[in-house]
Amino acid sequence: MDNEAATTIAGQPASAVPAHVGLLKVLGPVHVWALGVGIVLVGEFMGWNYGVGKGGAFGALISCFVIGILYTCVAMIDSEITSTVAAAGGQYAQAKHTIGPLMAFNVGLYMVLTYTMLNASDIQVAGQLVQIAAGNQNVTIPWQPYTILCLALLTLLNYRGVLATLSVNFVITALAFLSILVLFIGVKPWAPHEILLHSQLLTALPYGWLGVLASFHFGIWYYLGIEGTCQAAEEVRSPGRALPLGTMTGMITLLIAAAITWYVVCGLLPWEYVGWDDELAPLYDAARVTGSSTLTVILFIGTLFSAIASANGCINDAARAWFSMGRDRYLPSWFGAVHPKYRTPFRSILFLTPIAAIFALYIPLAEVITFSILSGLLNYTFMPINMWKFRRKWPVGSIRRGFEHPFHPIPAAVLMTLCIATFFAIYLGYGRQLLSMMLFYIVASIWFAFYRYRYVRRGDQFSMPWPRPQGY
Amino acid sequence: MWPLLTDAAWVVSIAIFAWLIWDFIRVNMRYSESVLLSSREGVDELFAETGQQEPR
Fold first, then answer.
1. Burial code of A418-434, b = ≥16 C-beta within 10 A, e = fewer?
2. What is the pTM of this model?
3. Residue A111 maps to which CATH number?
4. Domain total for chain A?
5. B22–chain A nearest CA distance, Å
6. Which of A9, A136, A237, A455 is deepest in the core (most CB within 10 A)?
């Protein structure tokens, strides 16, 4: 195979051609952090505030902590399994090894839709932010050219290499996070009544505990996408170290950012305004309320950077998931190609680009992001089952793990319980979308089981050098 | 300035997509499918380094 591959390129000596063209192992924990936090941090700048409209300020805080527990469980489970299943595709590759092809196909689709829809939302927001900036100078411009420009630049970056992509993501994510810290210091938290007005603005739960439950749906915004760190598994130099380190530090970063965001915004703006349907960027508006033009500019840049970083990470992750499914023939194998020079899944990157563009240009933000959240939640529901299967088939000590999460099976049980509660919360507000999404995945599963599965090479599915699982 | 920037956004976007499509076609014509599809799912380096685990 090696020699055959090497001699198939016209006009090139065999020695100049790599025998296997695979993804490059060039990433470290910093890039894993940049990927996970980069995708998620935009959720601190927008989206989470709709939970305030459902459950009030305190309801959103409870939601922030409860969903924070959900995602901590996600991060713990992912860190253990991904540091052991070191393959692109993240949870898709995990499902393939622990459960089976149909589950893996569904999980792969969950991820592609989660990240592609999130990418579409991000670039739409980025374009609209530029439009807002022009509007502040009394100039009316369309947002679409800036949305497309953002997509073009990020596609180019992703196409030309993962190291540059995630290095850029690290810089802009760190700057966006820094802008939240600057705002926190700028509102003088050490002098609570000078700028922050919690004592006047915070009220009791406006819609009771049912409102708090309904706000869980939007609590997901604080953390949606942290599980995307797993997609880097095949490109990190040391999966056993980099993935748990990057994922868990990313989760800590997000918990800090979420708490600061709630504290600052709910201390500056009334809950009715924060939870208003037309409120796009609460952190930016909080900065404007302070009256400081410096803080306003910094938070505008932070919001824009967070949207760009999120879109950048989403292109990376959606392409890896699609690429992995193509490589395993769950989709046409054509998608499993790697660029010989840049070592990226270039066909998958380019294939998903027009899909993101169409959703960004023609579908309203709220609907696009709901599709993303629903697919993400389905993915989280798979994780406890995945964890139980993984520990049962390969108990601790039977294979070497990069990381062993403590207190098993408590995180898996907590995760499953919180996923069910969040599904109920989504059903309260978006029942039609939830049922439509379920129908889509059922139809896709039927297509896979009765048509596509015949092309899958069953013997190649299990790629990890592990002993036979217990009970088989 | 803003109208100029808006036009520039379209021009730069078109130029980037044109380059991407050009490179995409070039790579697909220059390299065979056996090379482009030669990637294999990563072997866990934890095991590759230590050699402690038996292959299944």
1. bbeebbebbebbbeebb
2. 0.89
3. 1.20.1740.10
4. 1
5. 12
6. A9
